[in-house]
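Sample entry (254 residues):
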Amino acid sequence: MPDAEDDLDFLTTALREAGRVAMAVHGHNPEHWKKPDGSIVTSGDLAVNDSLLTALRKHRPEDAILSEETPDSEDRLDVSRLWIIDPIDGTRNFFNGGTDWCIGVALVVQGEAQVSALFQPTEDRMYTAIRGAGAYRNNRRIMASAEVANVIAPKSLQPQIAAAGLQPQDSGNLALLLRFAYIAEGRLAGTVNVGDKKDWDIAAGHLLLSEAGGLATGLHGQKIIYNRRNPWQPGLVAATAQQHATIVKAVGQS
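Predicted structure, serialized as tokens:
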């Protein structure tokens, strides 16, 4: 079985190749469709997904895969190592030729992320983490900051966030995984999502944030566990260690 360093080396290589695939169509009006939930998927999402699946099936054939763009199989429940993939987080921004999207992958073992990476191809930013070994951006250590107070939250929660002494703001076009990265590198204090979030929306960012000194939980502070039968989490609070409890309390007052 490969060790964590080998898994991360493999992962970053696969992500850079997937990034090249994405950039080949980025800004060129990629073909797109609507999913049943009303969100869009592009030819770029599918090409990135294919690139990552090909790499995983070649180099990690015994492991299971959970991806936004691949039908789920409960066979993954019987496998200890699971790769959770968001081929393009921020698809609408990607489709519109923006920069605030990324590719995110985490290796989950027995329900917890052990290795993860987020790649933002438009900025050549590679965020990486190994459990117990810290969080990095382009091989430089990053840490969440106690000095920031800005929190991305839905408008319905912004009054409570402000009343708690924090600075609420809208998400703009920033992909959720990049919000984790911004908290991890000290640019953001937190983010709140009230709707169900799929495991691929969270897993890669969760480990990065944890290794940078932050916290990610459910809306009421409950632990996030991956690779369950239903691969989603009921809401999310991701934040610096200093602000997490304050945000959870504020959300609970809504």
